[in-house]
């Protein structure tokens, strides 16, 4: 079969392979024996490994593989958390501008909490449809902002995200004509790369606008505001998965560049304070908003996860005492199940109201205290599919923002490694080898496609309900399934509050909002 002159060479190769295989086998046996002895006699921390040496190590290996097997083989399309395969697949197809039609019926479970929109027999015809109109934020500012899109990019810091991820989001935001929030990590050159609108977030550590002691530096604040692309400033009180705790950036992610942008030591974990140091009540909050707005000349608002609503009542009453111009120009309400790269499970699972309750609560308080036309409401929290964005608009949000939806558009596969600097898609890692897989020029187009296709389908839902554009959706256009399988109109669950109702009713402000709501229902 082989030429005779190659036979000696082939025999030699086989002999060497046999020898190599035996050497490898011996090496594996020696390593296994050493691990067996170490597990059995020396280590005392792991009971499984001490009682079942060597074999017990496979537990950790299979435990690690379990995440991937569940995602790709065992979990059904609607079973995974925090986002299931059906939700992610919709984003992937929208980001690639592929058709999002499906066949043979819906796989969505008919269970409590599901929102159903009420189509009408006379839907809005395509020729009568209207694009969602721009909306002004901050009419009392020197430089108000006219926002064009209802669906924008939520706060994600450079540091938590990689350089190519921020570049792709920046360029994609410009292409989609939506805004991009910097997150609390400061303004990097990559946020400005695409030329799109930027919202600068002032976190509890004041990264990018802090002095040496962590206080707000007006000169740095004015320098940030001097960028024409920076349109608004957002003071973060609390965020999604960890209300009551500041941002966490592992030491492995604090590079020299990130340390310079944030104003922090290189190679040390960056943990923000769990609250704004000089904001303790409604008056100090309004003072901070006024100060930032005066220094920057641009719309200034707050971001929060809502727990108790009493502080909001205090805030709105204080606004009436000072005058409407003192109000925050917007309030971003984040859900208690919002996303983050690193958070304690106790906060992630069990602290803060979910958006399904906090959004209508905030809208009702704003309207009830007569601030409907003064304060814009921005909804945040797992809004990655058209139905949830349409729900938020119908409940009363003026805008919606998403972080994880746009991460999926970048190629995120929900590997759950955001806090380990090992993200396999290059989205949340500073490892150059892994970042190489994320090409900003390619992914920016996907960001824009995702935005455009989502807005288009929200408009489709609105037209099905008989209105010409999404902001005409109201609570009576949707119903929510209850635990007994029956649906309840949203305007029954959360009756619409007339503008100024809480001011005119004469009810004491100390009475909890929930009690007032229950009284109105009865």
From TrEMBL:
Q: Which UniProt keywords apply?
A: Membrane, Transmembrane, Transmembrane helix
Write down the InterPro entries for this protein, in alphabetical order.
Aldolase_TIM, GltB, Glu_synthdom
Annotated membrane-spanning segments are 13-37
Pfam families noted in UniProt: Glu_synthase
Molecular function (GO) terms for this protein are: glutamate synthase activity
What region holds the Glutamate synthase domain? Answer: 145-467
- Give the family, as the similarity comment puts it: Belongs to the glutamate synthase family.
Protein name as catalogued: FMN-binding glutamate synthase family protein
Q: Name the lineage.
A: Bacteria, Pseudomonadati, Pseudomonadota, Gammaproteobacteria, Oceanospirillales
